[in-house]
Write a structure and sequence with these properties.
Length: 42
């Protein structure tokens, strides 16, 4: 069963880019965006 995501694909791509392309720490990005630094439901 798949749950619907409350975040848009654009939001997710930007969050990942901040970490992978810009080199920001996961903790910093997650705090700035107001989300958990942990992946769930994968």
């Amino acid at each position: 069963m798949m749950s619907s995501s409350k975040f848009s694909d654009e939001f997710k791509r930007d969050a990942v880019a901040q970490i992978t392309e810009r080199g920001y720490p996961v903790r910093e990005v997650s705090q700035r965006l107001g989300v958990s630094p942990y992946v769930s439901g994968v």
